[in-house]
Every structure is written in C-alpha cells, then in structure tokens.
Amino acid sequence: MGFGTGWSSNDAIFQELNKFIERYEDLQFASDLVFASSCAASVVLVLAFVGLYCNPSRYDLRSLGFFEGTISTVLAVSCLVQFALFMFWQQSRYVVLACAFMGAMIGNIQAFIIYPFFNAFYRLELIAYMNFGETLTSMTSGVLALAQSPTVGVENFSVQTYFTILFGLTCMAASAWASLVWQTGFRRDADEVDSPQDLSDEEDDHPERK
C-alpha cells in the first residue's frame, strides 16, 4: 500500500527526466517539474490546515471513514497518474507536468494526513509494512531506470514500458489496501481509538489544568 501512497509517481518522472528533455527539447522542463511539485506541496498544506483545523464544512475530517476514503482516493489517483504517463507522456509536456503535480500531492498527503492519523486507527505493525512499501518507491524507480539505460546510448526498453511496469505495481498496491477489508487484526478496536472529543475531555479532567 505504501508504494501507491508514496512518491512513486514523482520518483518515476524524475528518473525519466532526460527522456522528457530530449522529447520536448527544453532544458527548462526540469525546473518546470520542480515548480509543479512545489505548488502541489503548498496546496496540500493549505487544504490540510483549512480542512482539519478550520473545518468550514463542519464535517468530521478525523473520522475513520474520511481517513480510509482519503487513502482509497489517493491510490486511485496514483493508478490514474501512472496510466496517464505510460499512455500519453509523448503527447504533451503538460501531461507530464500535471502528473508531477498530482504525484507530489499524493506524496504530501501521505506525509501530512495519512501518516499522522494512521496510528490512530491501525496497529503499529502495519505502519512498518507501509514504510517498507514507500521505501520501495524510490528503489524500484531507480532500479528500473538503471535496467532501462545501464550506460550512455543503451536503452533496453522504452519509457512506455517503464511506466507500464510501475502502473502494474501501483495497481498491486491498491489491491493490497483493498484486501484489508476482509483481513483482521490490523485495525484498532473501537475502544482503542481516541476520538477528538475523548482527548478534550481528558485534558479538562487533568488535575494540573484545574
């Protein structure tokens, strides 16, 4: 699951940066990718602050339903990004820029939303598996890129094949998350989950605060 919610999309895009520069004949494309990724980080920070702390809709964004829905949405978008890359990366530079933006949003959502609340609803051993999956994102992208072009002028398989492999791995990550629906032992029991109301009640009852 960590493979799909991590930085797999951005790692893959930057590993293929030379191919994009050759295709679009623009050395500035690298800075455009960095700018798109930075904008995504800013958007996630603003949305996280407004949604979790200001909460204009008055919807409980710290509930299990919202948390699991966020992960499911992130995994679906991650699969869509990889699909768009292997199908349309040659069509327009804006396709790659849009995928870089969405990929950076996925990585930042994991850092600012998924990780902080994961421990609240799932047991600690599952976090280790998610961390391992996220670590695989950079390693897999790098190993595939090295296998694709081990030396200058050698290309063992195309960019489309590269993104196709990552698309398959991302779909596997989404399937792993979906399998938790019928697996037991990973989700915390209801009496183990502290709601925001429970935490505020504990603070009110603390003797040092009276």
UniProtKB/TrEMBL annotation:
Q: Where is this region: Disordered?
A: 191-210
Transmembrane annotation, as ranges? 33-54, 66-88, 94-114, 126-147, 159-182
This protein's source sits in the domain of life called Eukaryota
- Keywords attached to this entry: Membrane, Transmembrane, Transmembrane helix
Which named protein is this? Major facilitator superfamily
Q: What is the lineage of its organism?
A: Eukaryota, Viridiplantae, Chlorophyta, Mamiellophyceae, Mamiellales
